[in-house]
Amino acid sequence: MKQQIGWGILGCGHIAAKFASDLSHVADAELAAVGARSQVNADSFAKEFSAGRSHGSYEALVGDESVDVIYVATPHGLHHQHVMLCLENRKAVLCEKAFAINSREAQEMISMAKLKNIFLMEALWTKFLPNFAVVRNMVATGVLGDIRSVLVNFGFIPRQPVTTRIYEPALGGGTMLDIGIYNVFMVLSFLGRPDSIVASMEPAETGVDKQCAVTLKYKSGAFAQIFSSFTTHLPTEACINGNRGRIRLTHRFYSPAADIEYFPDGIDSRQIIPFPQETGFGYQHEARHVCECLRQGLTESPVMTHADTMELMETLDAIRKAAGIHYPVDGPV
Ligand SMILES: NC(=O)c1ccc[n+]([C@@H]2O[C@H](COP(=O)([O-])OP(=O)(O)OC[C@H]3O[C@@H](n4cnc5c(N)ncnc54)[C@H](OP(=O)(O)O)[C@@H]3O)[C@@H](O)[C@H]2O)c1
User: Where are the alpha helices (DSSP H) in 24-122?
Assistant: First the structure.
């Protein structure tokens, strides 16, 4: 393996810019090339982030020999197509969330990676953040006791002009795959796969959800409640409640800057738990992990496994079914 791992970015949009900026905090990574649908966009992005090369098509990017791994940063409705393009051209892939539109697409992508023996990981960046690691360890040591409920909200009013993907069914629009996925991830992390789901949504004009409320229930008696919204700004917090204590990840719970508030008795005595902070948006942690995996010759991350991605996608499928959120690619209702 080369001293510097050559990254390619496929799709030069909003999140690609943040990721490109954070790559500068990864010691053994370089932005080798970027690919956009137009040469003009690729050139201006490459200039801004000092990429080695810029390509005016995704096909040209995947054929670039200086690229070892590609970060797929297009809307989720295109992830299947673009991940397949990378894998067919023997490029390792870090694919943005939501990994795919549904679990069928996700399974096809994972099967292709296995068949070709190539690294593929979902960019569930929050799983790699230092504050999340601290919370996960606290829960594992049992300081909260038995986790009896997980309550998570994520809501904001998208900035004008609203980007097409937000409400476009063909691109996987709606809150659930875009932001609700973070809520579901928190629930799965601390309670596992639910035994039953009740969900309801408010449709946008395009039919996708602009608000979605979900209750997830467990045979143990535990509950999770999650709510996602594009119609209101919400306190975007996550509460993990045990029978001995509780934790609140403050607004915005999914970000590297969220505080960890620990209530040892579950009531008033509040402690702020320290964790390591560093500059950047927070995407450097997942990028470093991918570099480590590639250096070890792995084809699957031991942290964000293919099974983790499938559990997340299958839970999202079940929530969408319960709420009546349907995409053209799902097939007949
Ligand atoms: N991890 C996070 O914190 C985070 C945050 C926001 C979004 N995301 C995820 O990242 C992905 C991209 O989100 P984004 O906000 O960056 O989206 P965006 O800015 O609207 O679009 C991303 C890029 O995709 C490319 N693209 C290719 N075909 C397209 C089409 N038919 N319609 C629109 N764009 C198309 C375009 O790049 P070119 O024209 O340059 O090819 C576009 O700039 C989504 O899956 C989203 O869930 C993750």
Answer: 39-48, 58-62, 79-88, 103-116
Test site for ligand 1: of 62, 74, 79, 316, most ligand atoms within 8 A of the Cβ:
74
**Nearest residue to 197 (alpha-carbon basis) of 14, 32, 322:** 322
pLDDT recorded at residue 333: 81
Calculate mean pLDDT across residues 121-139.
98
Q: What is the number of alpha carbons within 13 Å of residue 51 lying toward its C-beta?
A: 34
Sorted by where each starts, the structural domains of the chain and their CATH numbers stand as: 5-124+282-300 (3.40.50.720), 130-277 (3.30.360.10)
Site residues for ligand 1, CB cut-off 6 Å: 11-16, 36-37, 41, 73-76, 78, 96-97, 123, 125, 163-165, 178
CA of 2 to the centre of ligand 1 (A): 29
**Cis bond leading into 287, ω under 30°?**
no
pTM: 0.98
Query: Is the CB of residue 280 less than 8 Å from the CB of residue 274?
Result: no
Q: What are phi and psi of 4, to 5 degrees?
A: -105, 125
For ligand 1, the distance from its centroid to the CA atom of residue 66, given in whole angstroms, is 23
